[in-house]
């Protein structure tokens, strides 16, 4: 009887995953920039939240969640702490959170990405699935932003130009 061993290769490094996520964040930042100030805070379609509120949600998740993962903190999610008044407020906070994400992401070992973590005391998934959720959630909300921009007669950034 012959035994065959198959070597598996890693699909993606953590550095590649972070680059992928930051590419999406870069594109979302450009969507924020494309909005006129008033419409960023007020325009919506079909009862959906204005894009400023969607951006605040995204700002309130990534860095905070990664910090929670690193520090093993399962406190509940809260987006009440940041109440922007201008587009510039949002962009400034977006850039600050990008640095927070870079800082904490780099502290998560390859092994930790496979560990189950109860994010915000609500979502019990492996760490890598939580990170993929952050990306998926951002893509979902950015899609809403694209619809808003098109409804306003504004051409959104090309979705494939992430860097």
From TrEMBL:
Keyword flag Glycosyltransferase: no
SUPFAM superfamilies named among the record's database cross-references: DinB/YfiT-like putative metalloenzymes
UniProt keyword Oxidoreductase present: no
Keywords: Metal-binding
Highest taxon above the source species: Bacteria
Pfam families the record matches: DinB
Family membership noted in the UniProt record: Belongs to the DinB family.
Protein name per UniProt: Damage-inducible protein DinB
Organism for this UniProt entry: Chryseobacterium rhizosphaerae
Lineage: Bacteria, Pseudomonadati, Bacteroidota, Flavobacteriia, Flavobacteriales
């Amino acid at each position: 009887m012959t035994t065959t061993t198959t070597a598996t290769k890693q699909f993606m490094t953590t550095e590649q995953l972070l680059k992928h996520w930051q590419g999406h964040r870069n594109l979302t930042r450009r969507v924020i920039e494309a909005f006129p100030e008033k419409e960023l805070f007020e325009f919506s379609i079909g009862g959906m939240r204005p894009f400023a509120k969607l951006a605040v949600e995204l700002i309130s998740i990534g860095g905070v969640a990664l910090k929670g993962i690193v520090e093993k903190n399962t406190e509940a999610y809260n987006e009440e702490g940041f109440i922007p008044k201008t587009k510039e407020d949002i962009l400034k906070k977006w850039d600050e959170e990008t640095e927070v994400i870079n800082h904490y992401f780099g502290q998560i070992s390859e092994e930790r990405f496979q560990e189950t973590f109860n994010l915000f005391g609500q979502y019990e998934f492996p760490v890598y699935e939580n990170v993929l959720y952050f990306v998926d959630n951002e893509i979902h909300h950015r899609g809403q932003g694209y619809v808003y921009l098109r409804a306003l007669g504004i051409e959104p950034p090309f979705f494939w130009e992430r860097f």
